[in-house]
Amino acid sequence: MASKQELEKLDIIRLAALCENVARSSAIDKKIAALAAALKLEWVRLVIRETPPPLDFKRTSKYRRKRQR
Questions:
Q1: CB 37, CB 19: distance < 8 Å
Q2: CA angle 5, 28, 41 (to 5 degrees)
Q3: Residue 16 domain-assigned?
């Protein structure tokens, strides 16, 4: 497992790929896989838009997670 310092050195595209691998792994529980998938999506959005996430992203993400339960 990578350390926090190692993860901070990765570029956004590599972070998105890492999150995708975690989300697809059968060894990861569903809750963690869902969080990894959401984080991957956010990294992709940052790459595409080159802008920070929307201000309501955290609230929207919480709402989506609650609906999935």
A1: yes
A2: 65
A3: yes
Q: Which domain holds residue 26?
A: 10-68
| Interval 13-67: pLDDT, tens | 788 888 889 899 999 999 999 999 998 888 787 777 766 666 676 777 776 777 7
CA distance 13 to 64: 24
**Stated pTM of the model:** 0.57
How far apart (Å, rounded) are the C-alpha atoms in residues 7 and 14?
9
What total number of domains does the chain contain? 1
CA angle 57, 7, 53 (to 5 degrees): 15
Separation CA 62–CA 35 (nearest Å): 11
